[in-house]
Every structure is written in structure tokens, then in C-alpha cells.
């Protein structure tokens, strides 16, 4: 709903469900970036069973395979959030904890691109 509020569309939605591993996240990212129409990736992680640090490790591991012209933003909330934020910060990717701020960041990045 927030993406539509800012006139943004959605190409893919991926539900990682519980127990996602860094390897699964990296594979999912590689599938998404095969679509040449993808201009940005917004990760909205609300971790309960799914741990934010595990998702962050997968994102960090896949960053080098994401073309530079694809914007990446992250929202982490839930289990091991602070560790996940630290992992992403180590690879120069900021993570918000507020969904609307994350959406504003992808909108801004897409409008610059």
C-alpha cells in the first residue's frame, strides 16, 4: 500500500517465511535481478522466526552481484534486528526500522536513477 501511495509499482513479492538462510536469500536475489526491468529492491523484513541477521547476511553476500544501477533499501524489524543492521552497515548499506522511511528511500533512489 505504501508503494502505491508514492506511485510505485511492484515487480516481485517474495515471502521468505520462517527459517530463511543466507543462501536462500542470495539465490532469491539472483533470480530477481535476472529481470532486466528491475530498477530497485526493497527488503521489508519483519523477523519473528525469520532472523534479521540471517537475512542481512544473505543480502550482504549478494550485494556484489547486484548491478550498480539497481537501488537497494532495507527495513529490518524483529529478531536480531540490531545485528542485522550492523551486518548491512559493514557493507555500506543502511537499514531503516520504519517501513514508511524505507519506502521514501526507495522512491527517492528510483527518482534519482
What would your notes on this structure say?
- With 113 residues, this protein is an alpha/beta fold.
- The chain is 44% helix and 16% strand.
- The protein has helices at 2-5, 22-32, 52-62, 81-90, 99-112; strands spanning 40-47, 71-78, 95-96.
- It has a 3-stranded parallel beta sheet with strand order 1-2-3.
- Helix 2 (22-32) crosses helix 3 (52-62) and helix 3 runs parallel beside helix 4.
- The protein is globular and about 30 Å long.
Total of helices: 5
Give average pLDDT, whole number.
92
Give me the count of strands: 3
CATH homologous superfamily assignment: Succinyl-CoA synthetase domains
Question: Low-confidence parts, pLDDT < 50 over ≥5 residues?
Answer: none
Q: CATH class, please?
A: Alpha Beta
Structural class: alpha/beta
Task: List strands and helices in order, with pairings.
Blueprint lengths: L1 H4 L16 H11 L7 E8 L4 H11 L8 E8 L2 H10 L4 E2 L2 H14 L1
Parallel strand pairs: 1-2, 2-3
What's the short story on this structure?
With 113 residues, the protein is α/β, with parallel strands linked by helices. The protein has helices at residues 2-5, 22-32, 52-62, 81-90, 99-112, and strands at residues 40-47, 71-78, 95-96.
Tags for this entry?
single chain; about 110 residues; alpha/beta; Rossmann fold; three-stranded parallel beta sheet; 5 helices; about 45% helix; globular; succinate-CoA ligase (ADP-forming) activity; Succinyl-CoA_synth-like; nucleotide-binding
Amino acid at each position: 500500500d505504501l508503494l502505491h501511495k508514492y506511485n510505485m509499482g511492484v515487480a516481485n513479492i517474495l515471502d521468505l517465511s520462517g527459517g530463511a538462510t543466507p543462501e536462500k536469500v542470495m539465490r532469491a536475489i539472483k533470480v530477481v535481478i535476472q529481470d532486466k526491468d528491475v530498477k530497485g529492491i526493497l527488503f521489508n523484513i519483519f523477523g519473528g522466526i525469520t532472523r534479521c541477521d540471517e537475512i542481512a547476511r544473505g543480502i550482504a553476500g549478494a550485494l556484489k552481484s547486484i548491478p550498480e544501477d539497481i537501488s537497494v533499501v532495507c527495513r529490518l524489524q524483529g529478531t536480531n534486528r540490531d545485528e542485522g543492521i550492523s551486518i548491512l552497515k559493514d557493507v555500506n548499506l543502511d537499514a531503516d526500522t520504519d517501513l514508511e522511511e524505507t519506502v521514501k528511500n526507495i522512491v527517492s533512489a528510483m527518482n534519482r536513477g
